Amino acid sequence: EIVMTQSPASLSVSLGESATLSCKASQHVISNVAWYQQKPGQAPRLLVYSASTRATGIPPRFSGSGSGTDFTLTISSLQPEDSAIYYCHQYNNWPPRYTFGQGTKVEIK
Amino acid sequence: EVQLLQSGGGLVRPGGSLTLSCAVSGTTSGTYAMNWVRQTPGKGLEWVSAISVNGRGTYYEDSVKGRFTISKNTSTNTLYLQMNSLRAEDTAVYYCAKERSGAPNDFEIWGQGTRVTVSS
């Protein structure tokens, strides 16, 4: 099983500042990584796929990067609505053995 | 706009059965794989099962293999998860999720989630 390790577990960032979230895969997953945002009581929402491609309707302040085992989600100019938990997800296996990171909670100061 | 509308779920006793449904609207292309993912406070997001584009390939996480069955009805565009021999550790919010196209791929659309509680 490919283990996805996210860091930090939580961070508190001032409004308008940037946040950098990390995700490390235990094996190479090429660029088959997605990032999701989840707010309380809601389903996860796709932000980025293929490590760096923003999903439809996602503002440009969300950007993903990385390949191989190290991936980053950067949220620039944080807005109040960005307060959420963010998960990375690898989909590099077939047959599928998809795995998710444990999440990073982002709070706005 | 593609939407996934889930139904089913609820409270069931250990050893019992439950069926979850996920109706897909806004697309009839059928060129996508579908998945079930569950979420618990302790284990976070956990992939449970997937079904291939043509429906002939079904795949399961080890702990549910032999107890859960994923299926889909292409004429009604509905995904199912039949859950048998339920255990307390199956208690979770279950989400259906549509892959971008084919597989393996990201989960571009998610259902709203449905809670399953296994308890006596």
Mean pLDDT of chain A: 96
What portion of residues of chain B is helical? under 10%
How far the N terminus sits from the C terminus of chain A, by CA atoms, comes to: 36 Å
Quaternary structure annotation: heterodimer
Output the radius of gyration of chain A: 13 Å
Q: Proportion of β residues of chain B?
A: over 45%
Q: Helix/strand-derived class of chain B?
A: mainly beta
Please work out how many helical segments of chain B DSSP would assign: 0
Report helical residue fraction of chain A: under 10%
Shape of chain B: globular
What structural class should be given to the helix and strand makeup of chain A? mainly beta
The interface involving the most residues is between: A-B, 25 and 23 residues
Q: Please tell me what the overall shape of chain A is.
A: globular
* Strand and helix order of chain B: EEEEEEEEEEE
Could you list some keywords that capture this structure?
heterodimer, A: about 110 residues, mainly beta, 4-stranded antiparallel sheet, about 0% helix, globular, B: about 120 residues, 7-stranded mixed sheet, 11 strands
Structure description:
The complex is a heterodimer of chains A (109) and B (120). Chain A is mostly beta strands. Chain A is built from no helices and eleven strands. In chain A, the strands form two sheets. In chain A, strands 2, 4, 5, 6, 9, 10 and 11 form a seven-stranded mixed sheet that branches. A four-stranded antiparallel sheet of chain A has the order 1-3-8-7, with no helix packed on it. Chain A is globular, with a radius of gyration of 13 Å. Chain B is mostly beta strands and 120 residues long. The mean pLDDT of chain B is 93. Chain B has strands at 3-7, 10-12, 18-25, 34-40, 44-51, 58-60, 68-73, 78-83, 92-99, 107-110, 114-118. Chain B is built from no helices and eleven strands. In chain B, strand 7 (68-73) and strand 8 (78-83) form a beta hairpin. Chain B is globular, with a radius of gyration of 13 Å. In chain B, the strands form two sheets. In chain B, strands 2, 4, 5, 6, 9, 10 and 11 form a seven-stranded mixed sheet that branches. A four-stranded antiparallel sheet of chain B has the order 1-3-8-7, with no helix packed on it. The chains are: A mainly beta (109), B mainly beta (120). The interface between A and B is medium-sized, with 25 and 23 residues.
